[in-house]
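Q: How would the structure tokens look for this protein?
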Amino acid sequence: YLFLTIYLGVTLAFILSPVLLKPLLKLTREHQLTSLADLFSFRYRSQLAGIMVTLFMLVGSLPYIALQIRAVTESLQILTQQTTPDILALGFCLTLMLFAILFGARHASPREKHRGLVAAVAFESLVKLIALLLIGIYAIYFIFDGPNHLGDWLKINPDAVTALFESTQNQSWFTLILLSFSAAFLLPRQFHMLFTENLNEKSLDTATWLFPLFLLALNLFIPVILWAGNFIQLEGNPDTYVLGITLNSDISWLPLLAFLGGISAASAMVIISSIALANMCLNHLILPVKFPRSDQNLHTWIIWGKRTLIVLIILAGYAFYSLFQQRQGLAQQGLLSFVAVAQFLPGIAGVLYWKQATRPGFIAGLFAGMSVWLVTLLIPLLYSSGIIETDFAISRIISDSGMDKWTFATLVSLSLNTGLFILVSIYSRQSQGEIEAARSCCAESLLPLVGIVSAKSAFEFESILANILGESSAKHEVQQALNDLKMSPYEKSPSELRRLRERIEKNLSGLIGPQLSHAII
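A: Here is the predicted structure in token form.
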């Protein structure tokens, strides 16, 4: 039953939607924050924070992207009964690049939602659910000849049931719930679908009960499929039982349905993750170093920048797959990413509920958590793969602790992360920008920015911004902000111009990231 922890953690995150997901959605919508890096960069007023989050999220997500590539290629091996060459995995990646570019990199601004992409993800979820339910029904009525015969087989083989309970006694149970809880809204694809592509705030109310129900339906037949694989004595990794039992059937379309369910789920995950990571890399790694010239079209430059980054990210996932493809189980590989994103939990607590949290505290805590993740999980993986010659006795230290590696890595990394975050925040001071951002993040009503506006009219805004953004982009952004506020371009009131300045900054935040937009304004 250890597999249930992944779904229980996600369910817990959605049950806590009123105090967790809804405040985050309100914040991201109001300030047009398109990623976790944007959120932390805005709250802690730090370009370094955005860079650290982006780099760590990128490295931490590669195992999860590689996992999907590996799952698809292994499925092809089972279907064809022969070794699948790496060229097929590369072909799968190239196809994903094309779809991600066509459906997920068409707009520069987060205002323009990718409705077709969201519909495709919804459809793949439906395909996946139908596939698993049909395979579960097939296992009960065609492999076991009905529930009664399944019950008789379980009576004869009581170990099949006992084995499910053994894992609930070990330390991983609560660790995995915590990791999946954080992954539910902090993984790039989860954050992107929950907040960036969200069209209606009320949709979270539906998701609060419907998504856990969907996960329950998805898991109904997992034990049955496991028992069916054992019953017909399938060889190989139990990860492949869903596809394996269909190959023993007389229903020709069932293996194809199982494969389509798997490949659609993997495709959606890689596409959404690559789009989300491309946005983060562009805003926090590329634009601060190489901002387009004023004679270049900013929106076109951003779109092509996203497309290039999508290609590079999927290729990086393929490279990770090539290096580590046969080293560990599918679920184990995914947990690498889960432990990585869990390092953002203390920072999220600071964003929503601790106004005194500081930039040095967040950076110190995150750096400590990243370092522990690197040492306890990534270095042993590199060692076991033959890429480095020593793991610095990390495996022995974990073994001597009496904990499994996931519990050890999670406990040590989050303890150091949280401890440093609190201590450094207590003994360091916030900048004025941090104080304003903290009020905006933690307050019920989001407060406006303060200060004197030097421009005397909307036309002067255009003139000044044109020096940085280019004439057409500056005119577009000012006009967009005027439309948002239903304000006349001839408005000259200082208080109204302050509102205009704030709106332009928020709109630019969605385009180029909060820290860069703040610097420009």
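The radius of gyration is 25 Å.

Confidence is low (pLDDT under 50) at residues 444-449.

Upvote if useful.
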